Structure to design on (230 residues):
């Protein structure tokens, strides 16, 4: 199996039928469980299915009600053909134990798979990036340590922080916003729910890639998917 990075489209198409969803350079799946002990057992099953590739590709978050799995080539910082192969192996191994990957939409599950990023708008990214790196205890991305590159949690648990170049100062505008990346079929229902809850649609010009929304005081958030980005 190839270790070359895949396009978003190729990664999604290779794993969607198994229930995995491509989010931010990562394949994600959530499996319902009835206890933490069951979650631990499923994690052991998934690790065994990955064999020698587990440490370099698999991450697991265990809770009493779910086991959440993510796959990516951690050194290459992206999804490869090997990750899609591992997703299939994990899915089959879990199915043999009677476990199933949950639906990726809120209509079926209270909190489906999603990933969060924090975006900081800046005039001089290189000047502020060291502060955020230090104050959060973050690290450079594995494949990019440049002066304007995103920052990541070295433990892989907290949201990444990326920096958006501003053309000119906007002192009256909120300059930090969240990016919530969800499964592609969850995006439009999530936008509708946010609007029904009193939100404001700032722009859908880039949909299906992302919708810019805000609360009634102007604090912004983007609902994002991988679609239309290749």
């Amino acid at each position: 199996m190839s270790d070359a990075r895949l396009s978003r489209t190729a990664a999604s198409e290779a794993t969607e039928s198994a229930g995995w969803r491509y989010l931010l350079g990562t394949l994600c799946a959530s499996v319902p469980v009835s206890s933490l002990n069951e979650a631990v057992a499923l994690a052991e099953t998934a690790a065994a299915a990955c064999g020698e590739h587990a440490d370099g590709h698999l991450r697991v978050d265990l809770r009493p009600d779910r086991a959440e799995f993510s796959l990516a080539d951690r050194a290459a910082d992206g999804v490869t053909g090997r990750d899609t192969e591992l997703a299939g192996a994990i899915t089959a191994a879990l199915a043999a134990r009677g476990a199933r990957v949950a639906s990726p939409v809120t209509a079926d599950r209270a909190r489906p798979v999603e990933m969060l990023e924090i975006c900081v708008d800046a005039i001089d990214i290189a000047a502020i990036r060291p502060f955020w790196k230090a104050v959060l205890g973050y690290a450079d991305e594995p494949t990019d340590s440049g002066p304007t590159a995103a920052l990541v949690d070295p433990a892989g648990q907290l949201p990444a922080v990326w920096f958006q170049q501003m053309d000119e100062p906007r002192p009256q505008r909120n300059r930090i916003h969240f990016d919530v990346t969800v499964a592609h079929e969850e995006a439009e229902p999530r936008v509708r729910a946010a609007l029904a809850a009193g939100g404001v649609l700032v722009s859908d010009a880039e949909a299906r890639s992302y919708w810019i929304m805000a609360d009634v005081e102007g604090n912004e958030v983007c609902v994002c998917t991988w679609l239309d980005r290749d």
Notes: The helical segments are 8-15, 36-50, 54-57, 81-96, 125-136, 187-196. The first strand starts at residue 21 and ends at 22. DSSP finds six helices and twelve strands in the chain. The mean pLDDT is 95.
